[in-house]
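Annotated sample (chain length 173).
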Amino acid sequence: MGAGDISCQFLTRCQKQQEHEQAQQANLSFLPLSLHPYDWHRTLKFFFLGGVVVGPALHHWYSFLVRFSPAQTTAGALKRLALDQLVFAPTFIPVFFSGLQFLDGNFDLKQLRGKLERDYVDTLVANYLLWVPAMLINFRLVPMQYQVLFSNAVGFGWNVFLSAVSHKEGEGG
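Output written by the structure step:
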């Protein structure tokens, strides 16, 4: 997860720099570009969440899914996919957001509720758009011994997205 946050911060800085250069070329901005310094605390939170919460949770979850439906058939893949996306995904998004808030040292249910009201549905829809096809491919076509590797590769992009959603401009965190 930390690599996703590093990439997100880098991409955000590049985007802001490019927007500033375009504004200067169009004579819309004479102000110097002020970029926030790299946020190492934010990256450490992502590494910690990935190593202590997300990684172990996914390890046990995928082990359960394989026991629940061990066959690598279309029917088995669809069973695992349905359980993964209808049970795990909707419940784990709030766990992720609350974990970040807790690591910021300001866990507040009212603030968490506001974050979920703003971002939960969009995050869940993005989850379905990415993970439903990815996990169908993974559960059906990827050999069992490479499924975690495949999930990690897709997860890198997902973690960039989660970093962006959880650190929107003006929200802090």
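Annotation: The radius of gyration is 19 Å.
Annotation: The chain has five helices and no strands.
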